[in-house]
């Protein structure tokens, strides 16, 4: 038991150190090739990354908070495929859970009654994806399928990381807090003058938010009509759907 615990702690610390090194390299590259604020952002990112990798509870809460408050935020640089914050949170949670499962013999795998059918469904989607793309998907299609996989695999992360009523309450609190903060942001933007609300939303352009076109949304797309609440969800329908679920 003690040996397994030591292996678990060693692997976890190695993972934390590896991510810290990668962020350090990214920060150094940002200093050399990008605006200085990106380097400071990379440095600040070490704190939440460390917490997520130390605890699956923090990883779950982070995923829920990002999904409800800042669902379309991306890393502040352009690449062939730029991952968003939600993808990174889900991927970190999945990685730390799988790592614990592999190195801790006392950690059991929970599938639940729908786990196997869900795995079968993923197999069907993978077959369809390969067949539909002629085994050579473009980067956008591959990225979209990867996001789909992360969303489905989040089910397994939840059922394997939420084992006690305390953990379930923690996750529900995070969901309610995220929904409440998102609703508050939506109300504040809705109550502001349109020009000010648009400037605030456009300021989020460096992290992937739209900077032109339909930044604010209106009923029947009529700027002289009634504005629709969007929060930081870009689209009013997805914003309303998320709040309805919460």
Automatic annotation (TrEMBL):
Sorted UniProt keywords: Membrane, Transmembrane, Transmembrane helix
Membrane-crossing residue ranges in chain numbering: 12-31, 37-53, 60-79, 85-103, 115-133, 145-162, 174-192
Protein name: Polymerase
Organism from which the protein derives: Kouleothrix aurantiaca
């Amino acid at each position: 038991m003690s040996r397994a615990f030591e292996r678990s702690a060693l692997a976890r610390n190695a993972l934390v150190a590896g991510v810290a090194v990668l962020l350090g390299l990214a920060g150094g590259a940002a200093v050399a090739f990008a605006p200085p604020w990106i380097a400071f952002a990379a440095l600040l990112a070490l704190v939440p990354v460390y917490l997520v990798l130390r605890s699956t509870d923090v990883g779950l809460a982070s995923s829920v908070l990002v999904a409800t408050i800042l669902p379309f935020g991306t890393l502040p640089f352009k690449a062939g495929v730029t991952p968003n914050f939600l993808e990174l949170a889900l991927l970190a949670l999945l990685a730390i859970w799988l790592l614990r499962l592999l190195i801790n013999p006392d950690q059991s795998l929970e599938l639940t009654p729908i786990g196997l059918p869900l795995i079968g469904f993923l197999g069907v989607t993978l077959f369809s994806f390969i067949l539909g793309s002629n085994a050579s998907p473009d980067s956008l299609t591959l990225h979209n399928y990867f996001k789909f996989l992360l969303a489905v695999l989040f089910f397994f992360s939840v059922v394997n990381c939420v084992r006690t009523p305390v953990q379930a309450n923690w996750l529900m609190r995070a969901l309610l807090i995220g929904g409440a903060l998102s609703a508050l942001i939506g109300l504040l933007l809705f109550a502001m003058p349109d020009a000010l609300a648009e400037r605030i939303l456009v300021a989020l352009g460096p992290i992937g938010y739209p900077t032109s076109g339909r930044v604010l949304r209106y009923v029947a797309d009529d700027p002289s009509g009634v504005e629709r609440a969007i929060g930081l969800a870009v689209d009013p329908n997805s914003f309303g759907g998320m709040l309805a679920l919460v």
